[in-house]
Design goal:
It comes from Labedaea rhizosphaerae. The protein is of the alpha+beta class and 779 residues long. It has 22 helices and 14 strands. The protein has a five-stranded mixed sheet, with helices on one face. Strands 8-9-12-14-13 form a five-stranded mixed sheet, with helices on one face. The protein is elongated, with a radius of gyration of 42 Å.
Length: 779
């Protein structure tokens, strides 16, 4: 059971019991004052006992429903039925006995109590239980009335039937509204699944980006330094940095939503750098933890680039707050470079840092000039961190969603409108038409009665079409409302004076059903005012131009009998409007929990897979550097670090979503080789088909190894062939991509993959090495 259905049942039960208390209480107490029955004290005892019981029953039923969903104390409902049946059997002693079967003289407070109980029963029992309870109450009422006045049994047949019809109509409303609530839950669940899939994909993408950024700032930067020979030998700062790199790539370094002081974290980054860094900055600055980690990673990357490329061992770090922004600058006075000369495939500070800052809502700029130095400036708006929310997180959790609320409200409303449309048609055709046909001699104008019936039927049809098309009546409801009130006056005027407010006066209370139908979507005050206005028109007309066929107490009971049901419909409409947002909120709370659990599971699995992918290559290198087991001055260690750093660079390009990933992966590897002093000649020919990612890795693996360790010159060639039609329905040329690399021989073994559709050929001639890898589609 979904939140919309669950909340509907809880609120429906609550208001059904409250309505029952009010209606039966008013009817019984008014009758006690105006028509107390044969013995006043006996009637008073029964009336007070009934109201006390109903108050206790409502409290207990609501309490058990809240605690266990109503599964315990099931005896409450049968006991309540027994009480109502006893009240029905007591009519001889508690009501004014009728002298005639004419018109509404049969109406009394006992019938009101019985009917409002039957109307409320759908909310406390199932269909079989409702049928049995209705049958028991109806039988008890008939028995009580027969014992009180046997000769009037047939005269009350219509009212006895109406008791059953009311139970059926109430059950119809209940089932339709509950069915639409269930439909709303299903629609919201579908929306939830779409949102969860989107949230999961977004979370995995963000986590992947964060992971790659962390990998770039930590392990990749460290291995690049070692591979490039920046570190002459074992050093304490390198060991500490490698140990921190291991911790960083194991998992997230901060808790989302928490806040930290950024300044001590940046000071620690500066302290860990082997450079001599001058510090200028504020004393304290609290920001979300995840953003602080990203800012620290960016600062570390900028310092690492100074160490690797600036040709100086000094730098300046400045931290300030300018116009609501956190500003971090890393400046050196080294050799500098020309930013215009940086190629588009470059993934160093000028690209990775800019992308990282963009992910957390900030920006980064790199200003440099050959011979002058470089300044890296990172800016992050403090407003992104309000209320402890990380700027690159999904933002504050919304506990309601306008779409969900609209879905639930629309389904609630449609179910209720169909209920009232159906009920209006049933009342008109099965109750009012028989009354009209059975009392033709009671009307001054039968034509007027037929016109009124036809008019109400027309309003019902219009409302039904509007409901079917999901188009609100809008401004048309007001002319239709005026028509309904006019038809009510017409039907009343056409009833003979002596039959006003009697059985023949079918429009007396029933006309208000069409008022209710037209104003279901209106505020409660408007709904109640319009329904009351219809009754005032009818009763004022009857009192002025005719005489009532019932007593004052009978009038009160007659009005309550129908008006309570109509007010119940208006009450349900108001309840449905009021619980749409809470139902959507409950759905969203559950969705947030389920989505968070799904995201956590998925991210946990992703991180395990990433760690496993690094376990055989990156982790041993970092672990060896951290423990001092590996010497950065060792050529084999440098080569291994260079190859692994180049593989990581290829990984960064894979995640960048380039249109031609193979080309960009090779260019990224070429860029690293060129930065290490290797002269690379690169050429590409032909049209390349799309190569699967695993095959791409195998295809470029020998080139990665050669470019990472080569000295001197390297010639790299890539040739692609796209399959063509051979004329007989087969491909004349198979899709293929070939990568060839020619370089000076290396003392290290170069991988020669032979899987995932890739074949490798290796030729060594003199001091030259030629390696060719070929991928063929479909192999």
């Amino acid at each position: 059971m979904g939140p919309a259905e669950r909340l509907l049942l809880r609120q429906g039960l609550k208001y059904a019991l409250i309505l029952r208390l009010i209606v039966s209480g008013v009817a019984s107490l008014v009758s006690l004052v105006l028509e107390p029955g044969p013995v006043w004290w006996r009637t008073a005892a029964v009336v007070l006992g009934l109201n006390a019981w109903q108050l206790w029953f409502a409290r207990e039923r609501l309490r058990t429903c809240t605690e266990d969903g109503g599964t315990s104390r099931r005896w409450l409902v049968p006991l309540d039925v027994a009480v109502i049946c006893a009240i029905c059997l007591s009519q001889t002693w508690t009501t004014v006995l009728p002298h005639t079967s004419e018109d509404g003289a049969l109406l009394n407070w006992v019938q009101v109590a019985a009917e409002i109980a039957v109307v409320a029963y759908p909310w406390v029992t199932g269909p079989l239980g409702l049928a049995l309870l209705t049958a028991a109450v109806t039988a008890a009422y008939i028995a009580g009335q027969t014992m009180a006045q046997p000769e009037l049994f047939l005269g009350g047949a219509a009212l006895h039937l109406w008791l059953i019809v009311e139970a059926a109509l109430s059950w119809g409303i209940y089932r339709l509204v509950r069915g639409r609530a269930r439909t709303a839950d299903e629609q919201v669940a579908r929306e939830e699944r779409l949102r969860t899939r989107t949230a999961l994909a977004n979370a995995r993408r963000v986590d992947e980006n964060e992971y790659l950024a962390t990998l770039h700032d930590t392990a990749s930067a460290t291995l690049l330094m070692v591979g490039a020979g920046v570190v002459a030998g074992r050093q304490e700062w390198l060991a500490e940095q490698a140990a921190r790199d291991l911790e960083a790539i194991r998992g997230p370094a901060a808790v989302p939503g928490s806040e930290v002081d950024l300044v001590p974290m940046l000071r620690e980054v500066v302290r860990q750098s082997p450079l001599r860094v001058r510090w200028h900055g504020v004393e304290s600055l609290r920001v979300p933890a995840l953003d602080a980690v990203m800012l620290c990673h960016g600062t570390r990357e900028a310092l690492t680039n100074v160490l690797r490329h600036a040709g100086t061992d000094e730098a300046t770090t400045t931290v300030a707050v300018e116009g609501g922004d956190v500003v971090i600058e890393v400046t050196d006075h080294g050799r500098g470079f020309d930013p215009a000369s940086i190629s588009g495939h470059h993934h160093g500070v000028t690209r990775s840092l800019v992308a990282r800052m963009a992910r957390i809502g900030g920006n980064a700029t790199v200003t440099s000039k050959p011979g002058v130095g470089t300044t890296v400036r990172m800016t992050w708006p403090l407003s992104h961190g309000t209320h402890g929310q990380s700027s690159h997180s999904s933002g504050p959790i919304r506990l309601t969603d306008p779409i969900d609320t609209e879905i639930i409200a629309a389904n609630y409303g449609k179910g209720l409108r169909w209920s009232v449309v159906g009920m209006s048609a049933i009342i008109l055709l099965l109750l009012d038409v028989p009354k009209l046909l059975a009392n033709l001699d009671a009307y001054d104008s039968v034509v007027a009665q037929v016109v009124a019936l036809a008019g109400f039927l027309g309003i019902t049809v219009v409302a039904g079409i509007s409901t079917q098309r999901d188009r609100p009546l809008g401004g048309w409801r007001w002319p239709l409302l005026a028509l309904a009130l006019g038809l009510s006056v017409l039907a009343t005027q056409a009833v003979s004076a002596e039959h006003r407010l009697g059985v023949a006066h079918w429009a007396e209370g029933d006309a208000a059903w069409w008022v209710a139908l037209l104003l279901l979507d209106s505020p409660v005050a408007v709904f109640v005012s319009a329904v009351v206005a219809q009754y005032v028109l009818t009763y004022a007309d009857s009192l002025i131009f005719g005489h009532a066929a019932v007593t004052v107490a009978g009038t009160v009971n007659a009005v309550l009998l129908v008006l309570s049901f109509q007010f119940a419909v208006g009450m349900i409409a108001a309840v449905l409007r009021s619980i749409a947002a809470p139902a959507a909120r409950a759905a969203r709370e559950a969705e947030q929990l389920r989505t968070a659990e799904a995201v956590e599971r998925a991210l946990h699995e992703d991180r395990k897979e990433r760690w496993a992918a690094l376990a055989d290559t990156t982790v041993p290198l970092l672990d060896g550097l951290a423990s001092g087991r590996l010497d950065p001055a060792d050529d084999a260690v440098r080569r291994a670090c260079a190859v692994e750093a180049t593989r990581m660079r290829r990984l960064f390009v894979e995640a960048a979503g380039e249109a031609d990933p193979l080309l960009h992966e090779l260019r990224a590897c070429i860029e690293l080789a060129e930065r290490n002093g290797v002269s690379v000649s690169f050429a590409e020919y032909g049209n390349r088909p799309k190569v699967p990612i695993q095959a791409r890795r195998m295809l470029t693996e020998p080139a990665v190894a050669v470019l990472a360790t080569a000295r001197g010159k390297v010639r790299l060639t890539m040739v692609g062939t796209v399959g063509t039609d051979g004329g007989d329905g087969t491909d004349g040329a198979q899709e293929s991509v070939t990568v060839s690399v020619v370089a000076a021989r290396t003392p290290y073994a170069v991988p020669a993959p032979d899987r995932d559709g890739v074949r490798t050929a290796v030729v060594e001639e003199g001091d030259r090495l030629w390696i060719q890898t070929t991928w063929r589609g479909g192999t």
